[in-house]
Amino acid sequence: MKIGVVSKFPEEKDGIAIYSENLCREMKNVVRIGDISSTKADYRINFRSLGLGKRLAEIAEKEKLDILHVQHIAAGEFFGKYTLNMPVILALRQKVPVVVTLHEVHYKCTGPRQKIICAIQKAIVKKASAIIVHTPLQADFLNRKYRTGKAECIYHGLKKTERRARKGKGILFFGMINSGKGVEYLIEAMKELPGYRLRIVGKPINRDYAEKIRRAAGRAKNAEVKLGWVSEEEKKRELSKASIMVLPYVWAPYQSGVAANAVSYGIPMVVTKAGWNWEMVEKFRCGEVVEARNAGAIAAGVRKIEGRYGDYIKGINRYRKEADWAEVAKKHVKIYRKILER
Question: How far apart, in whole angstroms, are the C-alpha atoms of residue 265 and residue 317?
């Protein structure tokens, strides 16, 4: 069985590029089909071209692929914002089955932008041979909304990193910085956490919002900001110093890769009940789930983790066992085989 994985790959500065490379490392007979800037891919093609489907068909025939597996995100420039993702939607018509991992599952279809994204999501679910998502509720939502049984859950993969001895009371917010992340509520919560130190580290997506966060952190006595793309080495250093991760999102159509990073490094989390990001934290009891847009609730979540830190480590260990990249790869192979046996 030979699989063609269609995704961004390193050296692109993109979380899905890192995700796909980690997955491919654990699978045999994989062809990496990357975007133009994916220098470590076996093939580099233009994901935003209307000729994407034809090019994928040529690669599938040349490499004798059994399945194409597309890593998809509707928003941004991944598959063409201005062409409304038509290149990838048309590309799903192939001689071989096409599996799609939806890294975002959009649940609110109000407003012009969200209506367009939901229409893209619907088209992909209808045309793909199978859909992979990262939480059970995401799979259930898609299967009910689109009256299909195609969607299956495979947890976001993670690496088991040796945990260091805990030192200090360092709180970390890590990841892309935009208005959906709710970082201002975390900074406000720090007023109730005088013994802690907050680091906000990540790439700004919205410059105005990032500047707002920089100013708010500057007024706080126990918060600091570092803006910019974070390399894997820098990420390792930041995660190694943190005691608690806080993800105060107000909008989250995804299971955050940052949450998987926290579990990899044995860091309990406070997450807000927004979108899908809270589900795995609640399921494995590896942190506290609190109300979104509520600084007091965030501070209370931090204090609760502080009082029962060891209990959350037990939950993290359960999560790490089930979501190790090797286990995640096996579950992908199982889905591929099921499709080919139809």
Answer: 10
State how far the Cα of 315 lies from the Cα of 293, in Å rounded to an integer: 26
- 131, 151 contact by CB (below 8 A): yes
The per-residue pLDDT for 161 is 85
pLDDT score for 76? 64
Which are the contacts of 231, defined by CB distance < 8 A and separation ≥ 6? none
Q: CA 223 to CA 194: how far, in whole Å? A: 11
For residue 163, is it within any domain? no
Using CB atoms within 10 Å of the CB of residue 162, give its burial: 0 to 12 exposed, 13 to 18 middle, 19+ buried.
exposed
Q: Residue with structure tokens 């590029």?
A: 17
CATH number at residue 79: 3.40.50.2000
Q: Is residue 165, in this structure, part of any structural domain at all?
A: no
CA distance 177 to 150: 33
Mean pLDDT value of segment 260-286: 96
Tokens of 320: 């790490």
